[in-house]
Input
Amino acid sequence: MLDVIIVGAGFAGIVAARELQHAGITTLVLEGRDRIGGRTYVAQHQGNSFELGGAYVHWAQPHVWAEITRYGLDIVAEEEEAGETTEVQVFSKGRWRSLDVDKAYELLSEAYETFWGAEAESEVLYESPYQPLSDYWTRYANLTLAEHISNLSLSRVKRDLLCASLLGETNAPLAEASALEMLCQPLLIGAADFERFAEATGEYMIVGGTKALAEHIHADSRAETRYGQVVTRIDQTSEAVTVQTQDGTQYEARAVIVAVPLNTWASIAFTPELNRAKQIVAQQRHVGLGFKCFVRVKGQMPGLLAFAPEPSVFSTVSTKQVNDDDTTWITAFGQLAPESFTVEWAQQAFGSLLPPDSILEVYGHNWTVDPLSLGTWASLRPKQTALVEHLASPEGRLFFAGGDIAFGWRGYIDGAVESGLRTARQVKTLLIAK
Output
């Protein structure tokens, strides 16, 4: 019998595997894809590298920064490839408006200050984001972002900039995403400061891509990893856990870590049933159902940055890189993914900002229809935030890990690392005690 089986080779899974293997606990990783990394995915296309999933890191993200330091990796500012932003476009009052960069950031800073409200000057900003939130925050538990924003006094331009920015952060419709998730973001950076927040969440990437970090962690673990193993059933007794894959293969271990995306939990049959909180959220799913894609357009467009609130298909657009063939790759985020990325879809989606005949191709991975993810990064619904502790809690010999159920940087690589470390410690406590 194996010591531990880990279901999923995303960052949470491979970090947990490394920690357990280093403790002398034999671990087998079962991964449904043909690669490690989960919802991070570095792909090559036309001689360029594209981060099709999670990508951003920062020294304010303590767990992933420790991993970057551990393996001697470097980071790079995205602006070095994209060119310095010289102008900001915002869709407001039915038309595109051009703003000076400093003015745009001033308006965004003021909008976020209003959004964070009294918390900007409150001692609650210095609570630990890794501990249960105090009663102060319960008044926001049932609010959506749209409901919270509707109560704010903002000019139209500030409101449109704020909504577009929040759509990019959550990758979810504002009428469905939890307000509490974004209201608590300052706890992670220690200040209600928009520029610091923007830098910490969307500016720096790993040199060599997220793949470089994942490969270092995976190699360090020396854990056996079997690919193409989609788990469909997990049965637990007081003595062991049996895992069954789609092809009928069964594995048995003393403990199992489920490290697959939250939105796929309902595709696994658990015996006995999971706790009520896990069942409810697994059926509801989180609402991170948006997209990240790359669009190649004619001409040179260095430093492009545009914001568009709902009902626009996209929320933010920015330059990725200017090419030698007089074309430009731009990065786009939006709150609702299409069935597929096509030029025709892009011409309609971006037609108000870009001439339709300038759009040459679209490249991306649709995480929302991918059966092994069924969504992008976690964007929790109202009331789900209060259940995170229950989602992450062990059940007998069954443990849970993933960026979706992290206590700190939920939805980020940092959160996945944090969760993997915590869960490995829980498993070690169980097995070593036994």
User: Anything to note?
Assistant: The first strand starts at residue 2 and ends at 7. The chain has 14 helices and 20 strands. The first helix runs from residue 11 to 22. Residues 2-39+207-285+375-433 form a domain with the FAD/NAD(P)-binding domain fold (CATH 3.50.50.60).
